[in-house]
Design brief:
A two-stranded parallel sheet has the order 1-2. The chain contains 15 helices and 2 strands. The chain is mainly α. 78% of the residues lie in helices and 1% in strands.
């Protein structure tokens, strides 16, 4: 009972304190990922303040650029909702013709979604993702918390770990394993993004470069990231190609993702840490439930960091078991 109450209390605290804890943990994760660069610059004699400020500017700039590059794709999909609904209705009508006895179900689904909205050719005036973020009341505070955490963690990390006493070596080893893993995976994801963009261009999908960028970024979120890209490509295929042709973009990405997960990443990343795929999946799902997209992003680094910290004799990196989509 004590364990159950402790877990429940911890979950309630994490959920309630999301506006503060989420950007703090995100800042710490980014700080750990860039820690080898910081250590190298320290050894070269670069002052700590300059290192912290430079890494803050570079990390924040890359995050902003990644979001700004993907945002038009999200807004484009949101603006084409009427076409998506219309295509879904056509698929439902086709299924109704092939399968007897489901006409009533099809009518009920049409009434639920709203037939008038489906038939409308006029796109709704939806706010862009950027508008929604900029209007969010806690966005500015979250950015400040993230920036402050990242800057001061990079600035004082060596002193913080030195004060940890016997745990210092284990903490450094955990940081190094996480950083090396994400460095290697970044190269793999970059290759996946380029291959996705090229493959989708060959099949004639619009915004292929943006889809490639989205595939590379979301591939950091194991399982859920590739599934999200597949669903998005299915929707894009329904709008642009229709019929069976709608399956071409997601199946193309599925082939690339399976190749990456089964062959490229294991051989490129090298030695792996035996983290249960179920544990990774549940960590990402719980992180998504508690803190939304930020929770899904930090779930894997935190799980990996804790696993390496608890097994300091095995400073390895995690297994990307991915038939990530199966």
């Amino acid at each position: 009972m004590l364990a159950v109450l402790t877990v429940a209390a911890a979950g309630a605290i994490l959920l309630t304190a999301k506006p503060v804890l989420a950007p703090i943990l995100f800042g710490l994760v980014v700080g750990i990922v860039v820690s080898p660069i910081a250590d190298t610059l320290y050894r070269l004699g670069v002052p700590r303040v300059i290192v912290a400020a430079a890494l803050l500017a570079i990390s924040s700039g890359l995050l902003v650029l990644a979001f700004l590059a993907i945002e038009p794709l999200i807004s484009s999909v949101a603006g084409r909702l009427p076409e998506i609904r219309s295509e879904i209705r056509e698929w439902m009508a086709t299924a109704s013709d092939l399968l007897r006895g489901i006409e009533n179900l099809s009518d009920e689904i049409e009434r639920t979604v709203g037939a008038e909205a489906m038939a409308s050719d006029e796109a709704p005036q939806l706010p862009t993702v950027m508008d929604a973020i900029l209007l969010a009341p806690n966005f500015g505070a979250s950015v400040l918390i993230f920036v402050g955490t990242l800057f001061f963690f990079v600035l004082t990390r060596a002193d913080l770990y030195a004060s940890a006493g016997p745990l210092r070596d284990a903490l450094m080893r955990a940081d190094d394993s996480v950083a090396r893993y994400f460095g290697a995976v970044t190269v793999v994801n970059l290759g996946l993004g380029v291959c996705t963009a090229l493959a989708l261009s060959l099949v004639g999908l619009d915004n292929a470069v943006l889809w490639g960028l989205a595939a590379g970024v979301l591939n950091y979120v194991l399982y859920l990231g590739p599934l999200t890209i597949m669903f998005g490509l299915l929707v894009a295929g329904m709008v642009q190609f229709g019929g069976v042709g709608a399956l071409i973009p997601p199946m193309t990405f599925l082939a690339l993702n399976i190749t990456e997960a089964q062959f490229v990443t294991p051989s490129f990343v090298g030695q792996r840490l035996a983290i249960s795929p179920l544990a990774v999946f549940l960590a990402i799902v719980i992180g998504l439930w508690l803190w939304g997209p930020i929770g899904a992003i930090v779930a894997l680094p935190v799980t990996l960091w804790l696993a390496v910290l608890l097994r300091p004799q095995h400073p390895a990196v995690p297994r990307r078991d991915a038939a990530s989509l199966t």
